[in-house]
Amino acid sequence: MSLSGVxxxxxxxxxxxxxxxPTTVTTxxxxxLLYVPVLCGLGGGLILAGVKLVRKLGVRGIGGRRRxx
Length: 69
Fold this sequence. Notes:
Blueprint: H1 3-30, H2 32-56
Helix pairs in contact: 1-2
């Protein structure tokens, strides 16, 4: 398979995903049984990413058991 064949295959997969994206978003947003868990998952992921960023910056919590005196 040549390089152009690989790019053609990747383009067709990308077009397929872009065609399915609006359908998936519409399905999730119109059904509350799907909408609420997806929002909770995204919110939880954002909160955990924020906590990870704050910890990388070196901010410590109030728990003092890990530090030596």
